[in-house]
Amino acid sequence: MKMFAKTPKPPYYAVIFTSTLKSEDPEYDKMADLMVNLATKQDGFLGIESARSEVGITVSYWRDITAIKQWKAQTDHQVAQSKGKHQWYSHYITRISKVERDYQM
Amino acid sequence: MKMFAKTPKPPYYAVIFTSTLKSEDPEYDKMADLMVNLATKQDGFLGIESARSEVGITVSYWRDITAIKQWKAQTDHQVAQSKGKHQWYSHYITRISKVERDYQM
User: Fold this and answer.
1) What is the value of ipTM here, to two decimals?
2) Of A7, A49, A105, which is closest to B57 when you measure between CB atoms?
3) What confidence tier does A105 reach under pLDDT thresholds 50, 70, 90?
4) Which residues of chain A neighbour B102 with C-beta distances below 8 Å?
5) How many whole angstroms separate alpha carbon A85 and alpha carbon A81?
6) What's the pLDDT tens digit per position in A78-88?
7) Less packed terminus of chain B by CB within 10 Å, N or C?
8) Per its UniProt record, what InterPro entries does this chain match (chains A, B) (predicted)?
9) Which residues of B are less than 8 Å from A52 in CB distance?
């Protein structure tokens, strides 16, 4: 995964996913990598940024709400979401937001 | 810092700040803690979430654009922004986004 997402000029969408894990699990890491690979193949995917220390934050960027809904409904991703919910995450919050402006150094 | 921000019902705003550091610097960590403390005292501040591994992602949540602008213009924060730009960060992207919906476990 590249460290910074090369997103186009706003507007576009950001899915901010903040989570804590019950425990370290190599199977989780494998699944997370697999999901990033799958996401990059989805229509409307723009990029992803991810960091984990005490808490994990993954921000994925999308062309529009339709692209986000399609990714949420993708079959393999649904399996991963269910495993995440029941097996890996102790808590998470997902926030869907519309990026209105950005600037960088 | 709490791990999860206890944000109200959307809409509200999220500032997604993704960065890489030139090198580890205890002075940076101190300044980051100080800025979090200052931010919590700003009008319209709703919460903050932060993680750093290969890349750092800090998401701060705000009532509206006005609150974000006031925080960007806050004097001590301006000093920190300048030091960040010239001394600590090798690269960063700031994205201002409007949270339209959220859900959690």
Assistant:
1) 0.95
2) A49
3) confident
4) 93-96
5) 6
6) 999 999 999 99
7) C
8) Dimeric_a/b-barrel, Jasmonate_Hydroxylase-like
9) 51, 53
For chain B, give every domain's residue range: 12-99
- Chain B (29-88) residues lying within 8 Å, Cβ to Cβ, of chain A: 49-57, 59, 85
Checking DSSP bridges between strand A89-104 and strand A56-62, what pairing results, if any?
Answer: unpaired
Report the CATH fold assignment for A12-99: Alpha-Beta Plaits (3.30.70)
pLDDT (tens digit per residue) in A91-103: 999 999 999 999 9
| Cα B41 to the center of its chain, rounded Å | 13
Which residue of chain B comes nearest to A9, CA vs CA? B95
Kindly determine whether residue B59 and residue A55, on different chains, have CB atoms separated by under 8 Å.
Answer: no
Q: What percent of chain A has pLDDT over 70?
A: 99
Alpha carbon distance B92, A39 (integer Å): 23
Question: What average pLDDT score do residues B59-72 get?
Answer: 97
Instruction: Report pLDDT for B2.
Output: 75
- State the nearest Cα–Cα gap between A68 and chain B, in angstroms: 12
CB of A15 within 8 Å of a chain B CB? The answer is no
CA distance B84 to B64: 24
- Kindly state the average pLDDT of the residues A45-74: 97
* CA-wise closest residue to B29 among B14, B43, B50, B3: B50
